[in-house]
Amino acid sequence: MKNDFNEKLGIYIRLRRERFNLTQGDVAKTLGVDRSTYAHYEIGDRVMSANMLYKISQLLKFEVNAFYDYYELSGKEK
């Protein structure tokens, strides 16, 4: 389900992934999901569970709250 929130979350995790020079395949393998599933998270087409968001935040070394700060600064309300 694509919406502004999911799109912004996808952009945020893509930027974090790129910062660590990881491919979508690298991240997907570590998370135990198909690369296509992870790719859909990044483009905002798939809603991730809170558990998956936590796993991604641990792997890409960010606090989940940091994303919400990013989202609010982008001019969108939660």
Explain this structure.
By secondary structure, the protein is mostly helical. It has helices at residues 4-19, 24-31, 35-43, 50-59, 64-73. α2 packs across α3. The protein is globular and about 35 Å long. The two termini are 16 Å apart.
Keywords:
78 residues; mainly alpha; 5 helices; 68% helix; globular
What is the helix/strand order? HHHHH
Give average pLDDT, whole number: 89
Low-confidence stretches: none
Cα-to-Cα separation, first versus last residue: 16 Å
Quick take:
With 78 residues, the chain is mostly helical.
Q: What topology does this entry show?
A:
Elements: H1 4-19, H2 24-31, H3 35-43, H4 50-59, H5 64-73
